């Protein structure tokens, strides 16, 4: 078995573990800091909306020997508006100019044909009205709202309302960070960006549901035992699915990174940046929120219940009694249990290696004579 596979098995069996839930305040602080940075980026810089949302024209030219600066100067001089020029892998250019009508677009195409030394008939011009972009934006918001509502309803039915609320907060966290990154780096927001944002919601929810399903199984009849608190069982669920989450996230990020860095950066296919950046940031944020936000939030909400508070008191009291017995050096027959202590899976203590399952690290061992 590989090292990673061996680590995954040990995490699942509770032999090793990291206390994600116990250190949740640290991760909450990190997430709040990142979210505030994203919001500040949106407020200060705003989003660089594409012409699909504010109207304009897109000119695609054939292969030319002219420079990007020459094409930009020609387009801005002919239109009187700022132009965005991107080199294409074919050797041509993609030139975007906002707020143009048909007559102005013809003038820009004529000027570009002279500057770039290409036939005007070979320059493809596409006009986009702002009303079309507004319709796309409204449909995107509608789709996002419907998606969120369905997610909350499904998770509330399949699991419980606390998990539904935690998953919703994690999704909002992922979207905010992704949109904030777009504002900070200045990438253009296009319909492809919207598609990417809607896509990452599914990936983020997938990781979250995997952990929630493990937590649901591990917390069955949890109040009938006095060995583990709900937070410890939740932490065990995260550790048990950690390697799986890492593997699926890395496998998903690799092709997206190829689109972003090779397709958009090296080959110059700028339109790939629209969707690849949202996917790349969203997938990473989704994996983070599933582990560090969603499940710890569920543990926080559940620990507020009277039953879970009472369980925690019983567990801590039992451990204190066992520790006192160990310090006094008493030895005797093994402690008898009512058989319910084995209902919940063993949860690894905070970032520590534990012994065989079924025997806590701090509990003294005894031999039957």
Question: Topology, pairings included?
Answer:
Layout: H1 3-13, H2 24-44, E1 48-49, H3 51-54, E2 56-60, H4 68-79, E3 83-87, E4 93-98, H5 102-116, E5 124-128, H6 130-158, H7 161-185, E6 188-189, H8 191-218, H9 230-266, H10 271-302, H11 306-327
Parallel strand pairs: 1-6
Antiparallel strand pairs: 2-4, 2-5, 3-4
Give an overview of the whole structure.
This protein is α+β, with helices and mostly antiparallel strands and 369 residues long. Helix content is 64%, strand content 7%. It has eleven helices and six strands. The chain has helices spanning 3-13, 24-44, 51-54, 68-79, 102-116, 130-158, 161-185, 191-218, 230-266, 271-302, 306-327, and strands at 48-49, 56-60, 83-87, 93-98, 124-128, 188-189. The strands form two sheets. A four-stranded antiparallel sheet has the order 3-4-2-5. It has a two-stranded parallel sheet with strand order 1-6. A hairpin with a 5-residue loop joins strand 3 (83-87) and strand 4. Helix 6 runs parallel beside helix 8 and helix 7 packs antiparallel against helix 10. The model is unreliable at 331-369 (pLDDT under 50).
């Amino acid at each position: 078995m590989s090292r990673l596979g061996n680590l995954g098995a040990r995490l699942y069996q509770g032999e090793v573990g990291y206390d994600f839930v116990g250190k949740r305040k640290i991760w909450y602080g990190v997430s709040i800091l990142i979210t505030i940075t994203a919001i500040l980026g949106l407020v200060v810089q705003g989003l660089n909306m594409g012409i699909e949302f504010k109207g304009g024209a897109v000119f695609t030219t054939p292969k030319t020997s002219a420079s990007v600066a020459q094409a930009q100067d020609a387009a801005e001089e002919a239109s009187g508006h700022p132009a965005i020029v991107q080199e294409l892998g074919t050797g041509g250019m993609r030139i975007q100019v906002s707020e143009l009508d048909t007559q102005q677009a013809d003038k820009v195409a004529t000027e570009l044909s002279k500057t770039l030394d290409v036939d005007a008939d070979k320059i493809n011009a596409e006009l986009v009205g702002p009303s079309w972009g507004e319709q796309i934006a409204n449909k995107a918001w509608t789709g996002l709202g419907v998606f969120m509502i369905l997610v909350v309803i499904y998770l509330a039915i399949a699991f419980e309302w606390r998990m539904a609320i935690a998953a919703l907060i994690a999704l909002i966290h992922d979207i905010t960070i992704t949109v904030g990154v777009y504002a900070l780096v200045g990438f253009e927001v296009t319909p492809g960006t919207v598609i990417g944002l809607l896509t990452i919601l599914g990936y983020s929810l997938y990781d979250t549901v995997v952990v929630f399903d493990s937590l649901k199984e591990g917390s069955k009849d949890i109040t009938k035992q006095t060995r583990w608190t709900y937070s410890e069982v939740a932490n065990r669920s995260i550790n048990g699915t950690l390697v799986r989450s890492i593997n699926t996230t890395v496998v998903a990020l690799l092709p997206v990174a190829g689109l972003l860095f090779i397709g958009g950066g090296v080959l110059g296919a700028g339109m790939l940046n629209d969707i690849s950046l949202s996917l790349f940031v969203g997938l990473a944020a989704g994996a983070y929120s599933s582990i560090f936000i969603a499940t710890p939030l569920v543990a926080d909400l559940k620990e507020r219940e009277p039953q879970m508070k009472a369980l925690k008191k019983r567990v801590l009291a039992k451990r204190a009694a066992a520790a006192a017995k160990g310090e006094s050096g008493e030895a005797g027959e093994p402690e008898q249990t009512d058989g319910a202590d084995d209902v919940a899976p063993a949860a690894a203590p905070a970032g520590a290696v534990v012994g065989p399952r079924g025997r806590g690290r701090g509990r003294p061992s005894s031999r039957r004579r």
